[in-house]
Amino acid sequence: MWSEALSWEGLSHLADALGVVSAVPFLVTSAYFLSRARRYRRRLRQLEGVTSAHPVALAVSLAGTRIRPAVQSFCAGFGQPVELVELHRPGGLSQAELPGVLLELQALKNRLMDDGASEVHLFLSCPLAVACAIGALFDNWVPVKVYQFNQGRYEFWTTLHGGYVAELGPHPLIEGA
What we know:
Shape: elongated
Oligomer: single chain
Number of domains: 2
Order of helices and strands: HHEHEHEHEEE
Strand order of the largest sheet: 2-1-3-4-5-6
Strand content: 15-25%
């Protein structure tokens, strides 16, 4: 019996069986990820556009190029007025200026809180370090909808809210979130 199992034909049958067995977890995992991707796209469609009473668009231009005109024309398509706030540095931004810009952004956030902003539409043209700092600064606040400039137009990409990317589900480190 062992001689038959260890023959080339027996090993071929064993390999076929292992292939079928290993395909099951792959198919289950694939179905799970496809389900998550569909849920993520559906959630993004729900969050797209203006979804609250007092939206604010924030255009941060710190890379030399002013993005306000493009943001204004994009926000005109929202169907309701959106206050546009801009932070612009015509010559770009140096590393030495970063702390001052972060203080200015904190003051801007405080002003928007005092004004009752219910959501922020965020448009950036800035160094990566500033984008990361803005994400950290505006996290755990009102929903911050992040837009990406792609092929000549803005696209809604995601929402920052509550210390995690809201579309992906509960925060894994916060119990009951």
